[in-house]
Amino acid sequence: xxxxxxxxxxxxxxxxxxxxxxxxxxxxxxxxxxxxxxxxxxxxxxxxxxxxxxxxxxxxxxxxxxxxxxxxxxxxxxxxxxxxxxxxxxxxxxxxxxxxxxxxxxxxxxxxxxxxxxxxxxxxxxxxxxxxxxxxxxxxxxxxxxxxxxxxxxxxxxxxxxxxxxxxxxxxxxxxxxxxxxxxxxxxxxxxxxxxxxxxxxxxxxxxxxxxxxxxxxxxxxxxxxxxxxxxxxxxxxxxxxxxxxxxxxxxxxxxxxxxxxxxxxxxxxxxxxxxxxxxxxxxxxxxxxxxxxxxxxxxxxxxxxxxxxxxxxxxxxxxxxxxxxxxxxxxxxxxxxxxxxxxxxxxxxxxxxxxxxxxxxxxxxxxxxxxxxxxxxxxxxxxxxxxxxxxxxxxxxxxxxxxxxxxxxxxxxxxxxxxxxxxxxxxxxxxxxxxxxxxxxxxxxxxxxxxxxxxxxxxxxxxxxxxxxxxxxxxxxxxxxxxxxxxxxxxxxxxxxxxxxxxxxxxxxxxxxxxxxxxxxxxxxxxxxxxxxxxxxxxxxxxxxxxxxxxxxxxxxxxxxxxxxxxxxxxxxxxxxxxxxxxxxxxxxxxxxxxxxxxxxxxxxxxxxxxxxxxxxxxxxxxxxxxxxxxxxxxxxxxxxxxxxxxxxxxxxxxxxxxxxxxxxxxxxxxxxxxxxxxxxxxxxxxxxxxxxxxxxxxxxxxxxxxxxxxxxxxxxxxxxxxxxxxxxxxxxxxxxxxxxxxxxxxxxxxx
Length: 753
What we know:
Layout: H1 3-8, H2 12-93, H3 99-111, E1 120-125, E2 130-132, H4 147-155, E3 158-164, E4 173-182, E5 187-194, H5 205-212, E6 221-225, E7 231-233, H6 246-259, E8 262-269, E9 275-286, E10 291-298, H7 300-352, H8 368-417, E11 422-426, E12 431-434, H9 436-442, H10 446-449, H11 463-474, E13 479-487, E14 493-504, E15 510-519, H12 521-567, H13 572-599, H14 607-623, E16 626-631, H15 640-659, E17 665-673, E18 676-683, H16 697-709, E19 712-718, E20 721-729, H17 730-733
Parallel strand pairs: 16-17
Antiparallel strand pairs: 1-2, 1-5, 3-4, 4-5, 6-7, 6-10, 8-9, 9-10, 11-12, 11-15, 13-14, 14-15, 17-18, 18-20, 19-20
Helix pairs in contact: 2-3, 2-5, 2-7, 12-13, 14-15, 15-16
């Protein structure tokens, strides 16, 4: 049977009983477990702290006792040898021995003694020179440069600890010595031993009783082990420690060999096979003696109170649960009975179909049951009122929805009939609608784009402009007419103009944006064609002026000169008139040539480079400023339309530099690298603001010519000068192969200083 289904269908009183009972058991269980765990952790922590402190105290006791024992041993040995030297000195004084004999016997007696296995006696004079040593090679050696020898020379008597490294040792080892001084012979008698060998010189009985006297509970004990894990001081409890079982002792020996310091827990069964318990052991290593001091205790000595606590908690919990169940059942009944009465009332309202006219009798009590009855009656009265109001609102809303639907249909018809593409976004940039004209121009369908973003619709190079437009719309501004490009579904780039605005709800909150696109590709092509026709007509008129009218005027000039020669002798007045006519004809020729060059500055015969060079020359001559032309050694000749637009852009940039920037140094630089063309006009003037006076018709025409060629125009201006840069891609150049020329490199050095 599904317990979840069974619980869902239980009466509320039984649900309350089950939930409260389970909650009580869980809380009691977790609380008891938490209390038991905390008490247990505190007990274990106290045990470990006690063992740690006791072990540390024993380590200090062992070190102190060992140090005193070693010092006493070395001192006794040194004093005994001093007595021997004194005795031999007295025999030498009464004539029984010579000085050499007395000193030899004293030295032989001292060198024959062994201090443990590695200790020895050495004799030095008062300056630190070795007199006698177990190693003959060291006799006569001055070792006064060692710090401990200098201390011996200064002290002459006492206990000294120091480090000494023999030639075959990897590192210095700690040593200790006791020093006695015999002044008549100037001898310093030293008794020394390595500290790691002190254990051979100590009397264990000096501190054995203090170690064995340590007690921890009923079965706790302490012990001391040497480097080979031999019990130097065995535990006082011989039948309650791990050393009574070789198997557990071996495991403990392995642990202390690996860890040196730490805590170890050992569990083992009794001989009968029943589990006996655990021993907690804390051990510390004394490296100078290679000893280990350990403190151990049987855990049952401390954990026995926990059993009492556990039994008490179980009894209290069970008793509380038995009392809690009937109380909970009674309280649940006081809650469910009024609810059942309320359910019966609601059922009557539903079955009889009286609407919301039924009411409950309100009891005299002010508890929740009385409040439920009061709130039920109030709720039914409000429901009755709301029911009447709701029916009226539904009827009114139906009329509003019908009017709104009619309005939406009307506006949708207008948008679908619009010839320009229109797209509607929400505030997150997702498409909510676009009209059939959008599909016709760009190829996207509403079914594929609805609810999606149109990031692929904006070319990468137009993203910055698009984001600025979106920001302007979100700030509540109307996006003005903006020229840009958009990508059709088939990958074509279509030139369009944009207008956009945000639409809002009745509270003025923005709901989305409406963007209108107008395809201006054909208009751009028509403008370009008109520009080309205009340029061709300009060129035709310029060529006619240059090739037809100029020669004709030159011929008239020649005839006037002939006429002047003929009448000069016979009619001087007429000759002067003819001379004036000749001068006027010459001025007419000059103006005609200037007019021809203005109408057609880029000649078919000379090309763009020649025209720009002439522009630089005329600028220097007319305006008295430095103007230089720099170009790459391989500048191909483009078509006439491109050349003409490039020339006019350069001409306008030069005029702006002189007129608005007040420049006196201008450089026109052309380059053709990486399959792209660039033209830069740099000056050292005061600069101008692109949005200021100089951004009038001239700058707009420069931008217009650039767009016709499919390039980009960049203007950087500051108070130190201006740089106008035109860049054209290879696709916009249309350079025919049969028109390509290689020009000789110009001499550099004409750039700005």
